[in-house]
Amino acid sequence: xxxxxxxxHHLADAAGGQMTESSGRSFEVRAxxxxxxxxxxxxxxxxxxxxxxxxxxxxxxxxxxxxxxFTQMPTKDKAVKDGGKLAGLLKKLASDPSNRYKSSLxxxxxxxxxxxxxxxxxxxxxxxxxxxxxxMSFSSLQRSLVDAEIYISTRLNAPFGSANYRxxxxxxxxIDYVHPTIAVGADTFTVDQLATTIxxxxxxxxxADFGAxxxxxxxxxFIRLRKAYFKxxxxxxxxxxxxxxECYGLRSATEVLRRHAEEIGFPNERSLIxxxxxxxxxxxxxxxxxxxxxxxxxxxxxxRNVRWQALEPVRRLIEETPSxxxxxxxGRPQYFGGNSELIETLGLPQxxxxxxxxxxxxxxxxxxxxxxxxxxxxxVPSRPxxxxxxxxxxxxxxxxxxxDFDQASAWHALLTLLxxxxxxxxxxxxxxxxxxxxxxxxxxxxxADGAGEAGQGELTLSSMRExxxxxxxxxxxxxxxxxxxxxPGIASDGxxxxxxxxxxxxxxxxxxxxxxxxxxxxxxxxxxxxPLEAGVNWSANTGELSAxxxxxxxxxxxxxxxxxHVAINxxxxxxxxxAVMFDLLxxxxxxxxxxxxxxxxxxxxxxxxxxxxxxxxxxxxKSIFADCVIDNLDLTEVDSATEVPVFQDCLISTLHxxxxxxxxxxxxxxxxxxxxxxxxxxxxxxxxxxGVDTEVRIALVILKKVYRQSGAGRRKSALARGxxxxxxxxxxxxxxxxxxxGLLTAVTRKTETIVLAVKGRRAEIxxxxxxxxxxxx
Length: 777
What we know:
Layout: H1 3-10, H2 27-39, E1 46-50, E2 53-60, E3 64-71, H3 76-94, E4 103-110, H4 116-129, E5 133-137, H5 138-145, H6 148-156, E6 182-184, E7 187-189, H7 191-199, E8 203-207, H8 214-231, E9 238-243, H9 253-264, H10 269-277, E10 281-286, H11 300-310, H12 312-320, E11 327-331, H13 339-346, E12 353-357, H14 362-369, H15 384-392, H16 395-400, H17 407-423, H18 431-446, H19 461-472, H20 478-485, E13 490-492, E14 502-504, H21 507-523, H22 544-556, H23 564-573, H24 579-590, E15 602-604, E16 607-611, E17 624-626, E18 629-634, E19 646-648, E20 651-656, E21 673-677, H25 684-689, H26 694-708, E22 714-715, H27 725-728, H28 731-740, E23 744-749, E24 752-757, H29 762-770
Parallel strand pairs: 3-4, 4-5, 8-11, 8-12, 9-10, 10-11, 15-17, 16-18, 17-19, 18-20, 20-21
Antiparallel strand pairs: 1-2, 2-3, 6-7, 6-12, 13-14, 22-24, 23-24
C-alpha cells in the first residue's frame, strides 16, 4: 500500500470529523497491554485457560496474584458473571501451595466508567466470597500506569519547538491560526484529517523549509489528539510530543523519553516509558533536523553515516514503538539527500505518508493578515513565518504607505530575522555570523553550475563547508554542520545521489543574501579579503533586488550609497568589467550616483535578464555592451539617445518601447540582433490604435510597464514616457485609480515614488491585456 492509499484508508472515518479506533485493535487487547505493562513488564504472562475457560489476564509474582476481566458491556449481569469468575479463579490459584503466602486481587475493567449497578454487584461478589475485587474503568487502569492528565497538562506548559518562537520587535497583536495546505502526493489534507490518520496508527513525516509552520502543525495535531483522548480515553492514545533538539548525545529510545520527561517537568519518567511500550501513546517528534550531528570528515558517503548516527535515538524510538501506534515526525527535508534516505534513516515503514507543507495562497494570506484593505506588493513572500513577521512588526503597513520602505529593506529585515532564529538554536554562532554565512553561500551559488540570473546554482556540503571556514575562520564542527545541513532556503535536489547536491529554493532569498555579501565587498574593496574583489566566473547579473539590499545594508552600516564609487573604481583600476561590475552599476543607478565624464565601462559576453537605462549621467548610459545576450532591453524610461548605452553585436530578445529601431538609436544598436519588439500597448502608435478611451489606454500602458518585470517596480516619473504629450497629464489621475482598484501599489524610495505590482492580480492584468474593453476605471 503506497502512502496515499494508506492515508485514504485511515481517513475513511474522518469525514465526520471524529477520531475512531480504525486500526482494528480491540479494547481487550489494549487493556491487556496496559495491565501487562503494570504487572509484568517482561511480557511473559497474560491470558490463561483455567478449567476450560479463558481468563483475560493473570499475573503472578513473588508476592501477589492479580487477575483481570475486561468488558465493553455496561450491564449488571456481566458484572455479576465476571465477578464470580474472578473470585473462583483467585481462590483456585491461592489454594496452590506455591501461592500460599501471596496476596490476591481481582479487577473488573470496563471500557467506560462502571455503572453504579456494576460497582455494587462486584462489591457484593467480593463480600460474599471474601475475595478482594475492584471495578474500574480503562482510563483508571491506564492512570495507574501513567497519569495522562498530568502529562498533557505539563506538556502544554512547555515549549513546542519553534511554534513558541517569539518574533523580535513584535506588537501585542495576535494572529489566528490559518490551516496550511498539506500535500501528500497529488492529494491535499487538512490538519484534522492528518491528526485522524496518525491517531489511527499510520506513520508519516511532515517536511517543509524554514517558516512554513512545521512545529505549529505538530502542536495543532497534539491539541486535536488531546481533545480526542479526553473525549474517549478507552479508544484513543495519549499524544506524546517531543522536541528532538533535546536528544543530543542520546543513544536509546528510553533515554529520549527520560530526557523529554525531564525537560517538560513530568515527574514519573518510568511511567511514560511503560505507557509507550504498552502501546498507549501516539508520538509527535518535532525537528529531526535539529539534532546536532557528530563531526564530519568530508565526503557524501561519510555525511550519510553522520546523519545515520545522529538520528540513531530517533530511529530506535520509532522502530521500538508498537506497530499499531501512530508516529508523525517533522523537519526540514534538506537535512537529507532525498526521501529514500529520510525514510530509511528515521526508521519509518515504506508506506509512511510524506507530507509537504505548501506556502500560503492568496486566500490564506488574507486570512492570516485579517485585513483585505492592504494591497500587498507582488514580491511579498508567501511563507507564513515571514508574513507573520511583516504583519506583527508593522512592516506591512509601511509597505502599504508612502514611507521609505521597499522590497530591498523588507528582505534585509527578513534575512536578519532568519539569522537570529537560526542563531538562537546554536551556542557558538551569533546572528551576524549566521547572516554572513548565508550571504557567502549565496555568492558561492552564483558561481556554481546552473546558477542563472537567480543565483540558484548547485551547492555541495563540501563547498558550503569551505564557505563556513572562510566566514567563521574555523572548520564546521558539530553545531556548524547542523547549521549547514538545515540552512534556511536551501534544499536538496531530491536525487539522493552521492553528491548530495543542494540549491536555493527561493530566488528572491538567494538574490537578497547575495546582496548582503555584495555590500560587504563594497564596504572594503581594497583589503584583499573578500572573494568578490577578483573577477568572477559567472556571467549573469542579479538585478535590482540584490543591488537594493546591498545599498540598504551599506546605509545601515553607516556608509553613504555613493560609497559604491570606491568598488567601481577598484574594478576599473584592474580592468574588470564582469557581472559583479554590472551589479555595482545597478547599485549606482538605484542610488542615483552619477558617473564621471571619463567613465566608459566595457562589458563583454554577459547574460542580462533586464536592462532599464535612464539618465544621461548614469554609468549605464556611458557603457558599451559587446557580444552580450539581453533578454529585455527596456527603453520606455529614456527621453533621448544620450541615455542609451552602446550595443555592439548583442543578441536582444525583446526591445521594449519601440515598434522598430528608430533612426536616433541606429548608432547605439549597431550590429545588434533583435528578435522582437514590444507589444502594441507598449508603444505610442499601439496605444493610439487601441479601440478604447484614452484613460483606459493609459492604464494599459502603466499596467504593462509595471507587471512586465516581477518585483522590481517602476518609477512613477517614468510612467508617462513614450506617451503622446497630450496624454501625459492624465497619468497621475489614472495611476491613483489603479491603486484604488488594488491593481497597483506604491512606495517611496528616498524622493522617488516606486509603483509596484500587487500580489495575486497578475492573471487579471493579463486578461485586461488580452481584452482591453473589460478594464473599467
